[in-house]
Amino acid sequence: MGQKEFLLKAQNALESAPTEMMSAGRPLRVLLIQPPLTDRVQSFVPTQNEEEQGIGHKPPQGILWVASTIKYMSPHDVKVIDAQPANMSYDDIVAEAVAYNPDIVGVSAWTDLWYPAYITGKRIKEALPDCHLSYGGPHLGIYPQETLDVPFIDSVIVGDGEVPFLNLCNLISNDVIDNSFPGLHFKDGGVKPYPNTLYVHGDLDGLPKPDRTMLPVKNYTSVMSRKTGYVTTMITSRGCPHQCTFCKLNFQKTLARSAESVVEEFREIAALGICEVEIYDDTFTWGRERLRKICEGLIEADLGVEWAIRDRVNKPDPELLALMYKAGCRRVNYGVESGAEHVLKRIKKRITPDEARQAVKLAKEAGLTVVTYFMFGNMDETMEDMQKTIDFALSINTDYAEFSVTIPYAGTEMYEEALREGIVDHDYWRDFAREPSPRFTPPQVIENNVTLEQMMAMRNKAIRQFYFRPKYLAREAFRQASLGEFLRKARMGARLLQYVLTKHAIPRATQSVYRN
Hints:
Layout lengths: L2 H11 L5 H4 L6 E6 L15 H4 L7 H13 L3 E6 L7 H11 L3 E5 L5 H14 L4 E5 L7 H5 L6 E3 L4 H12 L10 E3 L44 E4 L2 E2 L16 E2 L2 H13 L4 E4 L8 H14 L4 E6 L6 H9 L2 E9 L3 H6 L6 H13 L3 E8 L6 H13 L4 E6 L7 H8 L7 H7 L17 H16 L2 H10 L3 H19 L15
């Protein structure tokens, strides 16, 4: 599908909107910002930024989708700042903003990054008091009114941001404030009640694909990369059909782009010289016929781009796994979470250890690298359960395993249950949303059977026993595709060893609440 068709479908989606939303009165300068990692939420011990960990950076899909919609569907000029790869300070961001002199500034807000997002907006509003400052992102889905109550914030966007932000730009360009459109909330009108609180875009093919040239392609790499080159991310569907208690992305039904749209985006990525793609869908394979068409399209295109997915372990299909490998898929990430079946039931994962074992086996037989994720500190989990998780991780022959201490996040069923049962004695995430503080550490986790210190000790034990087995180390040294890959992973391994030996928790870039 060409760009004309995309724009036509998107315009059709806006036909019911007021005139002031559909067309611009005058062109504006629009600045979209991904805030820095400075002073982000901490995981019980001081953390390093992603570049220091050797993990690399990924382009911010959310603001790229919004920026591309503004670029291709309006006369407004749009600029994107991703502060993370360049390790930009607040002063750097403000200086770049002042030089651009925007009429509207949009800031992406995740709960983990709420403090740097807050400070970024505050500093920009001090330097540019006449600009309209708007916030969007996952944090707004939980705390829209708390965010709108911040004195220097003019509007917030809840849900899919492309159309509401385009409407915001057109309204401001017409000198109009209209608080009627779902998902867009102005200071004067406040956050509208359900069903107009959230905006969900029903036709993802009707939006322009993210224009990756709006950010430097060379800024984005990954420690998991098999090649020496640049990586990117992709979203081919939104929403999640599952109800895991630790996740907060199950608020909307799953919507998927067409196979043709996905293959076309792969073509654009290949043309930029990007060699690897990480698909960030919560469950990429949930539509089997769409998956088959995507793979067949990529095989026919023969682009030479490798890709990785997130998936669930139940109902793996050997034929589709083989087809995915032929189409360029080289890695699958499985959220297993626990080796204890009653814990999996408790967190509503709806999988079993046997299913996880079979999925890993079939994926590896298809030639895929397998990454598995485990959590310590779930509701009603015991020390015995955590030991089962370690034993299970060691037994299933996965290539890589990530072990984390569970943080109950706002907006999740787990956090709400912990509040009701008094395991968490006050709503500390709401307090943080209202008064963000630097390097905030959640004061409480799920300690109804096991203490935080015991969870951290078990996580370190798991890291030590999994990654520092002589046989595993020898295998990894032998299998690396390039010297660059070996050196990147060797640096990561050295940091893991340092933290384990000093009995610290392993530093993490993000918490495991956005995965299947």
